[in-house]
Amino acid sequence: MPEATATDRGRQVRQRLRVAASELVPELGWAGVSTRLLAQRAGVAPGLVHYHFSSLHALLREAVLEVMRELLGQLATRLEQTDSLDAGLDVILGSVGACTDRDPTSLLFAEAYLAAARDEQMREALAALLTDLRRTVAHWLNRHSHPTPDHTALVLAAALDGLLLHRALDPGLTPARVAPVLRRLLHLHGDE
């Protein structure tokens, strides 16, 4: 087996740093992650953090956005495979149903939103992800002949975010509790 090149080793270190960051942000909060802790978790020397990334915040941003993109990509794939509005709503609510008030994914999303309030690059990146999510949901709604796919996608995306954030404060707020209201929304066929 050929020996890894310097480029391959660099990619591996960058990936280990991103994975460590995506684990530490939910555990400690955005501000609680230090270069030393991050390097220790990734099993690399602290100097490699700044060798591979322009700053600790750039690394945290990249790591968190990578996780969020992957999760939203999985949601898009699953939505594309649905054969009805109800099945799609089940997919959307199922993605939230796995989240609790203290699970790493929910905490990561909450930390990302908080960071975006103070970091313009993070805000722009999250806004782009949100636009992609809305576009995905609107495409799914349109594919199932929903009369107002764009506007309904806005509401569903906001409901999804709200449900994630509210569950941190009210673990009893389950997808099952909001499903009937969202199902009615999907089946409204009147004027806007």
TrEMBL record:
UniProt keyword annotation of Magnesium present: no
Pfam families in the record: TetR_C_31, TetR_N
Listed InterPro entries: HTH-type_TetR-like_transc_reg, HTH_TetR, TetR_C_31
Residues in HTH tetR-type domain copies: 11-71
Alphabetical list of PROSITE patterns matching this protein: HTH_TETR_2
Keyword list, A-Z: DNA-binding, Transcription, Transcription regulation
Record flagged with keyword Electron transport: no
Record-annotated DNA-binding residue ranges: 34-53
Listed name of the protein: TetR/AcrR family transcriptional regulator
Species assigned in the record: Pseudonocardia oceani
